[in-house]
Design goal:
Layout lengths: L3 H30 L6 E4 L4 E8 L4 E6 L3 E7 L4 E8 L2 E12 L10 H6 L5 E10 L2 E9 L4 E8 L3 E9 L1 H4 L3 H10 L1 E2 L8
Antiparallel strand pairs: 1-2, 2-3, 3-11, 4-5, 5-6, 6-10, 7-8, 8-9, 9-10
């Protein structure tokens, strides 16, 4: 037979365990509310928090302004997808990453003409080879009557990536710091999901 102290201890033990579990869940909730997409930090140049988008299916990771709206579209059967972000204060300011499965060898230069046909009235300002995270990139600057574009085409063993930023000409320069931070963080997760 248990004494009254032992009975009280047995009753308190489940209560303590419930409180501990509730505390753990609360801490996890607080951590995730700051951006469960990976990590978040403040961008000192714009005082804006950034998040890390990690996409194993589309095989890339990249930082983006956390306050921007994000949409994701994917067609697994066709092997392509796109993630788009837009500034809620200026919805015409957009950043996107397209990822498409293509047979090797993947040559970004072969895809530029198709890309610009999707941008009516597009005129080239410049076209050069640069590097993002030690990966060769075809860097294209250009414009349409309404928007200015900064586009990078990169490839992995079996994927083509198009990182595209667009903004009205009067806003384009104001976003260059945020764009540079996103581009500097862009990482190809080659063979991450077991393909290729």
């Amino acid at each position: 037979m248990l004494n009254s102290h032992a009975k009280t201890s047995l009753i308190c033990l489940p209560t303590i365990m419930c409180l501990r579990d509730a505390l753990i869940v609360s801490v996890l909730f607080l951590l995730c509310s700051t951006g469960c997409t990976g990590s978040s930090k403040t961008n000192p140049s714009s005082s804006q928090k950034v998040g890390m988008h990690i996409d194993a299916m589309l095989e890339f990771a990249m930082e983006y302004p956390l306050s921007w709206t994000k949409t994701r579209q994917q067609n697994r059967a066709a092997g392509w997808g796109v993630v788009r972000w837009a500034d809620p204060e200026h919805p015409e300011v957009k950043l996107s990453v397209s990822s498409k499965s293509v047979p090797p060898p993947v040559v970004p230069e072969h895809h530029v003409d198709q890309l610009v046909t999707e941008l009516p009235g597009f005129e080239f300002s410049s076209r050069e080879t640069t590097f993002l995270q030690d990966v060769s990139s075809l860097h294209v600057l250009g414009y349409t009557p309404q928007l200015t574009y900064d586009i990078h085409l990169l490839s992995s063993q079996n994927r083509l990536f198009i990182v595209m930023f667009s903004a009205p000409p009067d806003l384009f320069d104001a976003y260059q710091s945020a764009l540079r931070e996103s581009l500097d963080s862009f990482t190809i997760l080659e063979n991450y999901n077991g393909s290729g």
